[in-house]
Amino acid sequence: MTTIVGIDLSLTSTGLARITTDGRKWIVETNCRQSKPTGTNLAARDSRIRGIRDDVIAWTTPCRLAVIEAPIPHGHGAGTFERAWLWGAVVSALIGRHVPVVAIPPATRAKFAAASGGADKAAVALAANRMWPSWTPGVPHGVNDQADALALGSIGVVLAGLTPPFLMPAYRVDALKKLPRMERAA
Fold first, then answer.
1. How far apart are CA 96 and CA 118, in angstroms?
2. Angstrom distance (rounded) from CA 160 to CA 77
3. How far is 56 from 94, CA to CA, in rounded Å?
4. Strand intervals (E) in the chain
């Protein structure tokens, strides 16, 4: 069995997708890990980030490939430092477990799923359901985050060299061409 995971990382609502195949049958599972701040001091922030990281790693490993949404390069506002801290903690934990990790820009995820780099979360959720008609969100909250993770995992299916069970129209192929060469070689 081969498992590919998609991670739509967030401090408040992390979407997770696990796609498993034996080459014929595909199993798609999604989940959402929600979190709220427990305090503003460093110890409380660290505890929250470690908790999210540990839950993400427990749910996604072992796997052949992890595809995570890349951070926005010039992000600002509340939580910017914590989001970067969380992203680095999760990526480091995956790499420490010898899991290949590919970071996908948000616009690439949207274009791959919904044919437009500017597609909103609802459009990506609709497209994810079209790619995986049997998919049902694993939990009732964070459905759009689960769909984003499923779109990322779907990119991973292609990057891992598997034959996807969904169509690969030109816009999906084009979205992957925009990835740096190293990222496509996963």
1. 33
2. 35
3. 10
4. 2-8, 13-21, 26-34, 65-69, 101-104
Contacts of 63 (CB under 8 A, 6+ apart): 3, 4, 5, 18, 99
Query: What's the Cα-to-Cα distance from 163 to each of 72, 120, 131, 153, 158, rounded to whole Å?
Result: 30, 27, 13, 13, 7
> Is the whole model's pTM more than 0.85, yes or no?
yes
Q: Which two tokens stand for residue 76?
A: 């600002």
Domain count, the chain: 1
CA distance 53 to 16: 12
Q: What is the pLDDT of residues 45-72, one digit of tens each?
A: 999 999 999 999 999 999 999 999 998 7
Q: 7: closest CA among 98, 137, 109?
A: 109
Give the structural domain span for 174: 2-184
Average pLDDT of every residue of the chain: 92
Residue type at position 160 = A
Rounded CA gap, 34 and 51, in Å? 11
CATH number of the domain residue 122 falls in: 3.30.420.10
Both tokens of 99, joined, read 């899991």
